[in-house]
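Saturday, quiet lab. Running sequence design on the structure tokens for the scaffold JK sent over.
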């Protein structure tokens, strides 16, 4: 997304199709979250933060199962307890933009 946002959005949507196709229940692990869901989550949890670049998960309607999975994961108690607060992520991203990543933000 750092370059041409539209190209980045298209590439991200294309890469997420594989996840959509593999999701056959509420979660990848079945009707409740399993280890596979928790292993995938850290890689996908930040897609909501890409809205400033214009990305919206399932904006074109082609990823409905993945969008529902995302909401279900956000509602999961284990995810809620371990989520990095948005303000810390924002501060970290700002430090990255400045070329001096601060890994110790509190």
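Result came back. Writing it out in full:
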């Amino acid at each position: 997304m750092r370059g041409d946002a539209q190209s980045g959005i298209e590439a991200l949507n294309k890469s997420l199709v594989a996840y959509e196709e593999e999701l056959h229940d509420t979660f990848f692990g079945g009707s409740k979250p399993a280890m596979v869901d928790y292993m995938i989550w850290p890689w996908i949890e930040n897609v909501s933060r890409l809205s400033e670049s214009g990305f919206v998960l399932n904006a074109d309607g082609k990823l409905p199962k993945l969008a529902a999975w995302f909401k279900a994961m956000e509602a999961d108690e284990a995810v809620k307890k371990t989520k990095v607060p948005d303000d810390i992520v924002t501060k970290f991203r700002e430090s990255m933009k400045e070329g001096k990543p601060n890994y110790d933000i509190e």
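Notes for JK: The longest helix spans residues 5-22. Residues 33 and 39 are 10 Å apart (CA to CA). Ask whether to fix the surface positions before the next round.
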